[in-house]
Specification:
11 helices, Rossmann fold, alpha/beta, elongated
């Protein structure tokens, strides 16, 4: 059994991190340049399809080189422990007793692993961290690196879970965590096998052998009925 866990708004409160970084950029740059930086950030995300903080900073510094070092430190050295959900580490510990927890995240291949490490999550999963630009397109690679009879995918985005379900079908059970600004986004495809309100609820759902058995049995029955 391998548990595949998203990071942003699943294990860490990325919305809160954004609020804190916004406050820092306003303090360093002032309101107008802070807005210009975050426009650059969103432009880069739209261009490349994922968050690339290094590219956003490089583009912004080319036009506004003042306060570059302070801005870099505010973004690149952000303390992600302060926005890690309180139940994240206990949940990862519980999952390790019933299977193999693996972090599977979208994002910049340089900054995202650093973020996961700074949040204390890499250590909690013994370094089992995979970061891809578009993780739902790399599921065959995931299966080669972490082979399993069955996967449980956990994410705040139901659309990603639907694409994972379409790829792996009965080989995966999906859990939608209703955290963060994307939690209620519309999507197409199979509905999640389970929906929980917070990452702490995952321990009761699959964090013991008995709970995991019941969850997999109910997910299997639901799949047959659909």
């Amino acid at each position: 059994m391998v548990f595949l866990l998203d990071v942003d708004n699943t294990l860490i409160d990325n919305d809160r991190a954004r609020e804190l970084m916004l406050a820092a950029t306003e303090r360093i740059l002032g309101a107008d340049l802070s807005r210009a930086y975050w426009r650059t950030y969103e432009d880069v995300r739209e261009n490349v399809g994922y968050v690339d903080s290094l590219e956003a900073l490089e583009r912004f510094h080319a036009l506004h080189p003042e306060n570059a070092a302070a801005l870099d430190r505010a973004i690149l050295d952000f303390d992600y422990v302060q926005v890690r959900y309180p139940r994240t580490l206990p949940v990862l510990g519980a999952l390790a007793r019933t299977g193999v927890p693996v972090v599977l995240s979208d994002g910049d291949p340089v900054i995202q692993p650093l973020k996961i490490g700074r949040a204390g999550i890499s250590e909690a999963v013994d370094g089992r961290v995979l970061v891809f630009m578009h993780k739902d397109q790399r599921l065959d690679d995931v299966a080669r690196i972490f082979p399993a009879d069955h996967y449980v995918a956990v994410d705040d985005k139901a659309a990603i879970l639907a694409r994972i379900k379409l790829h792996w079908e009965d080989r995966v059970s999906t859990v939608h965590v209703l955290q963060g600004k994307y939690a209620d986004d519309p999507y197409e495809g199979p509905r999640p096998d389970a929906v929980i309100g917070a990452i702490g609820d995952l321990e009761g759902l699959v964090g013991t052998p008995d709970a995991l058995r019941v969850f997999l049995e109910s997910a299997s029955i639901r799949g047959v009925s659909e």
